[in-house]
Design a protein that fits this description.
Layout lengths: L11 E6 L5 H14 L5 E4 L5 H11 L8 H25 L4 E4 L2 H8 L7 H12 L5 E6 L2 H10 L12 H17 L4 E5 L4 H16 L1
Parallel strand pairs: 1-3, 1-4, 2-3, 4-5
Bound molecules: thymidine-5'-phosphate.
Length: about 210
């Protein structure tokens, strides 16, 4: 199923990319830009974005890399997403508010579906049955995994489980996100995230303005 449609007035936007690609900064900046034009966006994130989903987040991002099998991970991410959708995303869109989410279903398609065995079919089946919605616009922040990984680990947030899979994994992720952009050319836009944050924010603001026009 496709997104909510800009005709509803509210835009559902996701930011995606490898760890350390600057999504969170750009999501915040986009929310500020929209607020400055008088809109009232909800800024949220995955895994998380609702109290129950934030509880599930801790199970997913902390601990040993081999703590969960890819299949178990898919189920946990989907449970968190369903809660996020019910408690945060759908109520916001119904109230006419834009939603900006730092990651959504494309992260599962790539992290669990394409990089640790071919589980994309399973991800798509569960997505269709329990989620059933994709964003109107997905901004994929694309950059060199070596630079991004240094940034990600430098944060030392205690949420490094996926960064701990290593550089080869981050390269597979980057390839996965680029393939996804080619698969969904109308919804996904690839952004060169190796530039300074101001230039990236300017590009994103222009893309979103275009979708809102
Ligand atoms: P974050 O660092 O962007 O907050 O995301 C936490 C980690 O969870 C990140 O390494 C990506 C990973 N992740 C998945 O593996 N699958 C998913 O579906 C989502 C939403 C995140």
């Amino acid at each position: 199923m496709s997104g909510t449609g800009p005709e509803r007035g509210a835009l559902f936007i996701s930011l995606e990319g490898i760890d350390g690609s600057g999504k969170s900064t750009q999501a915040r900046r986009l929310a500020e830009t929209l607020r400055a034009t008088g809109r009232d966006p909800v800024l949220t994130r995955e895994p998380g974005g609702a109290p129950g989903a934030e509880d599930i987040r801790r199970l997913l991002v902390e601990g040993d890399p081999d703590r969960w099998s890819p299949e178990t991970e898919i189920l946990l991410f989907m449970a968190a997403r369903r809660d996020h959708l019910e408690r945060t995303i759908r109520p916001a869109l119904s109230a006419g508010r834009d939603v900006i989410t730092d990651r959504f279903a494309d992260s599962t398609r790539v992290y669990q579906g394409a990089t640790r065995g071919d589980l994309r079919g399973l991800v798509d089946d569960i997505h269709d049955r329990v989620i059933g919605i994709d964003p109107d616009l997905t901004l994929i922040l694309d950059m060199d995994p070596e630079v991004a990984l240094t940034r990600g680990l430098a944060r030392r947030s205690g949420e490094d489980r996926f960064e701990d899979f290593g550089l080869a994994f981050q390269h597979r992720l980057r390839d996965g996100f680029r393939a996804l952009a080619a698969e969904y050319p109308r919804r996904c836009v690839l952004i060169d995230a190796g530039r300074n944050p101001d230039a990236i924010a300017t590009d994103i603001a222009a893309l979103v303005a275009q979708r809102l026009a």
